[in-house]
Write a structure and sequence with these properties.
The protein is an alpha+beta fold. It contains 66 helices and 42 strands. Strands 7, 8, 9, 10, 11, 12 and 13 form a seven-stranded antiparallel sheet that branches. Strands 22, 23, 24, 25, 26, 27 and 28 form a seven-stranded mixed sheet that branches. Helix 42 packs antiparallel against helix 44, helix 47 packs antiparallel against helix 50 and helix 52 runs parallel beside helix 55.
């Protein structure tokens, strides 16, 4: 440090000492000690490092260190890391601090800083005072720099190190730093303490070799090699090798007979001093090392596997000296670890053992004399060769390298030489020589990249030598990952890749032009530009500037299609010579028309700069025309760490991207200057901001941009985190660790963010990036796609999808929400730019429950077009919409897996953070089939596996309107509701009002479903149609005519066919006259003579008719408790009515969202009949699902050549009608299960309540969100005798199917061969043939289809709570319950019964049908419960059916005649009751016998157990029931109340236990003696067991006489029966 610096430092310290006011408990004595320590402490510190610091910071640091060092155990280093805090330390600073007190030793500072850098901790300042201190025997600090030790003082040479590091806040991070430094300091101490011992050891070994060379010679060692080894060892001990570790090893055979090196305990020195836990053990040597271990050489020279923790961060050098026994056998090794010193690396190799020999041998091989020209070149080359390589490399390899390098003197070029580590291929040394003028950092990086790719992610160290020689040398060492070896590579091919990687007024203007472009090109450019440069331009711009402008324009012209030059532009950010720091200018070039400042200024201002002046120039360029050059002076750009060229590049690229509409121009662009981000990185942050806004953030994207600009460090970390997660060019190995480290770093940085809003916003960015699973960012598209798991993002609007895709570009934004990996739903062109996700989320709620009947879960998508042409024609608007739609569709496919030859293929250049995901099916939600065709064309063009099944409803798809499928499905609900009222809508006239017109699919098809419809009124967005007294047939014919027109409105309805008083009225009319006929039809008051169109529509909606048919778009009915704003359909606020005002008896919801769910519930509680839109119109999605799955199967046949495309299309369309029938069956079944639920609504309310709680606890259902009653509301309904309503059951039904499908899918149930038919029966009959059997069986969605089929059937047949109740009672899994159900329905032949009952439609009442079905349901449930209790799960379904089927099949036909006594009487009662309902006799008997039919499972089981004929078992079973009056007792059990879960469970257990006791009694009687008549066998058994029988009889009689039959008495009765068995 200079004398001037010393004076400056002394003044700084003295001023600080004088002004310092110690705080806290620092006494005057300690304060004086600190002041006196200041000069010693800071004596080696540059005063500039502490200039500007407060006295508290200067003195406080010393005081803290002094206090820390006040106590230290001798020989132990003390380390602490912390962040100074004003409250605790009395001072603070913007860094964290590491303090060390330790014994003085070499390499301390370098080792400490090396460790911190390795931990990723930036070191800002190191203060390192070395001093002698006096400590007492306990290590207490008594004196600083004592002249002598004094009494009881131990003078100690100490190093005190204070390192100021990057701010840290995580306590774990401080602990990590402390632990690492303690370990490093231990290593330094060991090395220092043992340095002399290790040098002595090296010399001693050399002496041993000299003393007894004969045994080495006996082992085959060349005597010359012995001498050379001795010289080398002595050379290393002469400060040419920093010895860091030593240990001895014995070469032994392990238990497998393989050579291994075993450490000799206690032999370690330095960093090998401490014996490891495995020191006494040994590991077998790899084969390549095993061979070398026995080679007759003294020395082993190589590199160790670990980096040094001391002094320098290099891989340790390894010197091994083999041990020989008396016979010359190699018996071990003495190993030195360390680093060659600078002296060893700079001294002449002619004076270094081994190296001088190799030099001589290479000279000899080359045939050169040492003093010859070639010899001197060769020696110079060897002198500059890496010394560690020179020691290790065999002479032959070295000669080949030297010869190759010398040949480069005659031939310019680059050459690669490689040397593989002989000990297992742990590393590869690579030497690249090239002409010196050819080397650059870029070349070096390119070469490193080539080598890194070749060695598959190996780590790479490099060293560059560029001296006076004509060649530059790049020395790289590629190291395999720990435990791995480098693969063999093609060196010739690699060398070629390396070679490829290593490849400027008038006079002044002309000279500069020639200098810049050469004479020929300069002449061309002069002719082109010189005449067009105006005097104004020449005055303001130097020739050098002109050259720059010409170069820029030439580049622009050359890079543009000549036909498109007009309007093209480019831009340059530059600094003029002598400009002040931070001041730039900006040059914008424009060919053709000039630009306006109003366009360019916002773009520049959004880049965070101020425009202070502007100079426009226009020049003329031959063959191009007029060119404008705008030169803007920019205000001072804030200081930045960006290199000038980097700032220039980023600024220009971002301006260009914004100017060309490749990116939006907004406040995010300020991050270019502030954070050094490029425009594509800004697009990532901008897209996340836009997404978060759509996801409900209350902050605008501009505000989010300002927050990022205020926290540029975190903004950079967020981008870095995104890149680490998704950059496909980064190695996958260690990616998760890098992601974790970066995430923790962001979280750590967030701790220092003061603003709560800023913190919350930045955390939302972090969460969104962490929730992103895939992106197309690296695929090179003009739009960006994120695939996210939104459930990982806090505070997302509910319901939260399972998966989500967000598409962003300056032109389009969109989302696709999926509630399962296999999910489908339509895509909507939305006009809600600010909240389109909210719109889509509302739609997907309905889609989710609607899709419960099909294979995929619910999904929905929507996109907005952000740059629709203003005042554009319809064609222009639609062209932009289609273009945006294509980007949206393309984005969805960009991040979706494909299936190629039944193998999943992931998207290119896409890093996946999720599993395989190839199912992506969409549809046109609001549009025409054209949109589906567009989507399918993209799918086909990309080779997407779904082909034209990707978007259902295309031109080669099922025409929903032509099929009328949606309306037909909803009509099933209408028919059922009316059938419940005893009305056949196909045979009896009924009145209707509707929403829609005849051109619409749902309305038009719906109003043609029955020729008995009397449509008295309808409306759409254009007209109100009134026909107060229509003739059903005439009006049906006219409606059909309108429907078949290409386009129609209500105005096309023949007015002559409208009944008196009716008409068609435009909604634009001021008012509509109301005729008496209309008043009567709409139930209006007599004084109503006119209404506005809106009032008239409200009257239509509330008319007293039989049916309100919704076939339109919009929400027209709400609940009393809802506001119009809550409905979210502003367009219909003026016409919307409350549900309580509706007077229609039935509502059919063919259209979506015609009513709110709360309105449906309100209407149903008022006595109205309806389901919900997702139930009524589910046939549309069901048809689309069939379409997709059929196409998937048929397309597989097309690809395999077994079917051509035309045949596929014909076959596909020929199955239309059968697909419709398959779909409509589901609509029928869902109406039936809902009707059954309504029939039991009150008595099952306690079950429904528990079930909803269970679903809610499991996270499947949100009752409030789905408008299902709370526990309090249920309690209120229970007191009024009300249960759930049909719309509520509809929701519960859907969630039941969703939940069960999810659970069953997790099992192997679908793999059961029995369910092959379930898969086949999903498809139409033509596809069930042998021709398609293999294709059907190998369908990619085979499992999902089977699960969907089975769950749908089970729930539709057995009810909403069937599986729940069995699980609640038995804890059985969903899959096992399903297995039991399948066995029960097959064994008991219930399918045939269900078909018989459905044939009775309109022949008996719905109530009667439901009674029959509920009886069947009871049997199926009891049989399933029996199987779950008595059989081992999981089982093979077919085998289980086979076990029971024959026996049950034998007994069921004879069951009636086997019944005795009370069983027979009960059967007759039930049969007569069913016959009185109109049920055919045989069917009535079949239902009536279902109660005893349950016992057939027990009968088969007993027969198998006792090896008796099942018929005999049955005879005895029912005879015994009669004899012991078991049936009577069973009826008493069944009569027990079922008011809650526990009484229901107790009743069921009691009943099942009674059945079990009955079965056990039967078996016991059968086994009591030889075969006899049942009565005789029973009598004999009773005689044998008289005492038990009589005792049981007495108890049973007493209970009967008491006439109190409750749970207690019946439990005793059961025990009495059981006593006769036990």
């Amino acid at each position: 440090m200079s004398g001037q610096s010393d004076v400056h430092l002394q003044k700084l310290l003295s001023d600080a000492a004088a002004k310092w006011s110690p705080k806290g408990n620092i006494g005057p004595e300690e304060a004086d000690a600190v002041r006196s320590l200041l000069p010693v402490y800071y004596r080696h510190t540059d005063p500039e490092e502490i200039n500007g610091r407060s006295p508290e910071q200067i003195c406080g640091a010393v005081q803290a260190h002094h206090a820390f060092g006040a106590q230290r155990s001798l020989g132990r280093a003390k380390v602490r890391a912390y962040t100074p805090d004003a409250e605790q330390e009395g001072w603070e600073q913007p860094t964290s601090v590491v303090e060390i007190v330790t014994d003085n030793a070499p390499f301390l500072v370098s080792s400490v800083t090396m460790a911190l850098v390795d931990l990723g901790v930036g070191v800002r300042l190191v203060v390192h005072p070395q001093m002698t201190v006096g400590r007492d025997l306990e290590g207490r600090l008594r004196q600083m720099d004592p002249e002598s030790g004094g009494e009881k003082l131990l003078p100690v040479e100490e190093s005190w190190i204070r390192a100021e590091i990057d701010p840290q806040s995580d306590p774990d991070r401080f602990a990590e730093i402390t632990a690492r430094l303690e370990g490093v300091l231990d290593d330094v101490r060991y090395v220092d303490e043992d340095a002399d011992k290790m040098r002595d050891r090296a010399v001693r070994i050399a002496d041993e070799l000299v003393a007894d060379p004969d045994r080495l010679v006996a082992g085959g060692v060349d005597p010359r090699e012995i001498d050379e080894s001795v010289d080398f060892l002595r050379w290393t001990a002469e400060n040419n090798f920093t010895l860091m570790g030593y240990r001895e090893y014995s070469l032994v055979k392990n238990e497998d007979g393989d050579d291994s090196l075993r450490p000799d305990p206690g032999s370690g020195l330095g960093i090998l001093r401490m014996d490891s836990s495995t020191s006494s053990g040994s590991a077998a040597l790899p084969p390549e090392i095993r061979a070398k271990a026995r080679e007759p050489y003294v020395l082993v020279l190589t590199k160790a596997n670990s980096r040094s923790t001391v002094h320098r961060p290099k891989y340790l050098d390894y010197i091994g000296v083999k041990k020989f026994d008396a016979q010359g056998n190699i018996v071990g090794e003495r190993r030195f670890l360390g680093l060659y010193t600078p002296q060893a690396n700079t001294g002449s190799i002619s004076r270094i053992p081994i190296m001088r020999r190799k030099q001589a041998e290479v000279l000899a091989l080359a045939g050169f004399e040492a003093d010859s020209y070639d010899g001197r070149d060769l020696i110079e080359l060897l002198e500059t060769f890496p010394r560690e390589e020179l020691l290790q490399i065999p002479v032959g390899e070295l000669y080949n390298i030297v010869r190759g390098v010398l040949r480069l003197r005659e031939r310019r070029g680059a050459k690669l030489f490689m040397r593989r580590d002989p000990y297992g291929g742990r590393y590869m040394s690579c030497f690249v020589y090239m002409p010196r003028d050819q080397y650059s950092t870029r070349v070096r990086l390119d070469i490193q990249s080539v080598l890194a790719e070749a060695f598959h992610g190996a780590t790479m160290d490099h060293n560059v030598l560029i001296g006076s020689a004509p060649l530059a040398r790049l020395y790289l060492v590629a190291r395999a990952q720990p435990g791995q070896t480098l693969a063999d590579i093609d060196q010739v091919a690699l060398e070629e890749k390396v070679r490829q990687a290593a490849r400027s007024w008038t006079v002044d203007f002309e000279e500069a032009l020639t200098e810049a472009f050469g004479p020929v090109r300069a002449t061309e450019l002069k002719d082109r530009y010189a005449g067009g440069l105006t005097d104004t331009y020449k005055v303001d711009n130097t020739p050098a500037t002109a050259i720059s402008d010409i170069a820029e324009l030439e580049e622009l012209i050359a890079g543009t299609d000549p036909e498109k030059l007009h309007g093209e532009s480019s831009a340059v950010l530059y600094r003029t010579e002598g400009a002040e720091p931070g001041h730039h200018r900006f040059r914008l070039y424009r060919i053709g028309e000039p630009i306006t400042l109003s366009r360019v200024m916002p773009v520049l201002e959004n880049l965070g700069v101020e425009v202070v002046d502007e100079w426009p120039y226009d020049i003329t360029v031959r063959d191009v025309g007029r060119v404008w050059i705008y030169d803007f002076g920019l205000g001072r750009i804030a200081e930045t760490d960006l290199a000038p060229e980097r700032l220039k590049t980023l600024f220009e690229e971002t301006f260009d991207a914004s100017w060309r509409d490749l990116a939006e121009s907004d406040r995010f662009n300020a991050l270019v200057v502030r954070a050094g981000l490029d425009w594509r990185q800004l697009t990532v942050l901008r897209a996340y901001a836009k997404y978060l806004r759509q996801a409900g953030s209350t902050f605008t994207p501009d505000y989010l941009a300002d927050v990022l600009a205020a926290n540029v460090g975190i903004a950079n970390l967020l981008v870095e985190l995104f890149e680490v997660r998704f950059d496909p060019d980064q190695p996958d190995e260690g990616r998760d660790e890098r992601i974790g480290a970066l995430t923790r770093k962001v979280e750590s940085e967030l701790e220092s963010v003061a603003s709560l809003d800023h913190d919350r916003i930045l955390r939302s960015f972090l969460a969104a990036i962490g929730a992103t699973l895939r992106t197309n960012y690296y695929q090179g598209h003009p739009y960006l796609v994120f695939k996210l798991d939104p459930q990982r993002i806090p505070d997302m609007p509910q319901p939260c999808p399972r998966l989500e895709m967000y598409v962003y570009s300056p032109r389009v934004e969109g989302v696709h929400l999926r509630f399962g990996r296999v999910a489908r739903g339509g895509l909507r062109w939305s006009d809600r730019l600010e909240d389109f996700r909210t719109e889509v989320l509302g739609l997907v709620k309905a889609q989710m429950v609607k899709n419960s009947v099909i294979v995929p879960n619910g999904a929905k998508g929507g996109f907005v077009c952000k740059r629709l042409p203003q005042n554009g024609t319809r064609e222009e608007v639609m062209a932009e919409v289609v273009s945006c739609y294509k980007q949206f569709i393309g984005g969805l496919l960009d991040v979706t897996d494909n299936l190629v030859d039944d193998r999943v293929v992931h998207p290119e250049r896409t890093v996946l953070h999720d599993g395989e995901d190839s199912y992506m099916v969409v549809a046109a939600d609001k549009g025409t089939a054209t949109f589906s065709d567009i989507a399918n064309s993209i799918s086909i063009e990309r080779g997407f596996w779904l082909g034209d099944a990707f978007a259902s409803g295309g031109s080669v798809g099922y025409d929903h309107k032509g099929m009328g499928i949606t309306a037909r499905g909803a009509w099933e609900s209408v028919r059922y509701h009316f059938r419940e009222m005893g009305v056949n809508v196909q045979e009896e006239p009924f009145t209707v009002v509707g929403i829609g017109d005849m051109s619409g699919d749902v309305f038009g098809n719906g109003m043609l479903r029955s020729q008995k419809i009397r449509l008295v009124a309808a409306f759409d967005h254009r007209h109100v149609f009134l026909d107060p007294d229509p003739d059903p047939h005439t009006s049906w014919v006219e409606r059909k005519r309108l429907f078949e027109l290409p386009r129609s409105t209500w105005e096309d309805y023949d007015p002559k066919l409208i009944s008196e008083g009716g008409g068609v009225h435009p909604r634009t009319a001021k008012s509509v006259p109301i005729t008496p006929q209309v008043r009567a039809a709409l139930g209006l008051a007599d004084d109503v003579e006119s209404l506005t169109p809106d009032e008239l529509i409200q009257a239509v909606l509330t008319a007293p008719v039989d049916l309100l048919w919704n076939g339109g778009i919009g929400t027209y009915v709400k609940a009393d408790t809802e506001t119009h704003a809550e409905v979210g359909d502003k367009a219909n606020d003026q016409v919307r009515v409350n549900a309580r005002e509706l007077r229609a008896k039935v509502i059919g919801e063919g259209g979506n969202l015609g009513m709110t769910q709360r309105a449906r519930i309100e209407y149903a509680r008022e006595g109205g009949r309806l389901n919900a839109d997702f139930i009524d119109n589910s046939a549309g999605v069901d048809t689309s699902d069939h379409e997709v799955n059929i196409k998937i199967m048929l397309d597989h046949q097309v690809r395999s050549g077994e079917l051509d495309k035309d045949e596929r299309d014909r076959l596909f369309l020929d199955m239309t009608d059968e697909v419709a029938e398959l779909v409509l069956g589901t609509n029928y079944s869902q109406n039936t299960v809902l009707a059954a639920a309504r029939k039991q609504d009150d008595q099952m309310l306690h079950v429904h309540s528990r079930y909803m709680r269970r679903l809610e606890r499991a996270g499947v259902l949100d009752r409030e969100q789905e408008n299902l009653p709370s526990d309090k509301a249920i309690a209120e309904r229970r007191t009024t005798g009300q249960g759930l309503t049909s719309p509520e059951f509809a929701t519960l039904l859907s969630y039941t199917k969703i939940d069960l499908k999810e659970k069953v899918s997790l099992s192997d149930l679908a793999e059961d061969p029995y369910l092959a038919d379930a898969l086949t029966e999903y498809f139409p009959t033509p596809l069930r043939s042998e021709r398609f059997a293999k294709a059907v069986a190998s369908h990619p969605l085979r499992k999902e289809i089977i699960v969907n089929q089975v769950v749908n059937q089970m729930v539709n047949r057995s009810g909403v709570t069937f599986a729940f109740r069995l699980n609640e009672e038995l804890s059985s899994s969903a899959a096992d319950i399903t297995r039991a159900y399948l066995v029960a329905q097959d064994v008991l032949r219930l399918q045939q019964f269900w078909e018989r009952v459905e044939e009775l439609d309109h022949r008996i009442s719905v109530d009667s049908q439901l009674a029959l079905l509920l009886e069947t349901r009871k049997l199926a449930e009891r049989a399933s419960r029996w199987l779950l209790r008595n059989r081992t799960f999981p089982f093979d379904i077919s085998s289980e059916i086979g076990y029971f089927a024959d026996g049950v099949g034998e007994i069921l036909p004879r069951l009636v005649e086997l019944l005795r006594g009370r069983d027979k009487e009960a059967f007759v009662e039930r049969r007569d009751r069913y016959m009185s309902m109109g049920v055919p006799t045989d069917l009535a008997e079949q239902v009536a016998v279902m109660v005893p039919a349950y016992s057939t499972l027990d009968l088969v089981e007993i027969a198998q157990r006792t090896e008796r004929p099942v018929e005999k078992v049955a005879e005895l079973y029912f005879e015994l029931a009669d004899r012991l009056n078991i049936s009577w007792w069973r009826e008493k059990v069944i009569d027990l109340p079922r008011d809650d879960r526990w009484s229901t469970t107790a009743r069921a257990s009691l009943r099942d236990d009674l059945y079990a006791a009955h079965a056990d009694l039967t078996a016991r009687v059968l086994e009591s003696g030889p075969e006899k008549a049942p009565a005789d066998l029973i009598a004999a058994w009773m005689e044998q067991n008289r005492e038990q029988v009589e005792r049981a009889g007495i108890t049973l009689s007493e209970i009967q006489e008491h006439e109190r039959f409750d749970l207690a008495t019946l439990s005793v009765a059961l025990r009495s029966f059981r006593s006769m068995v036990d």
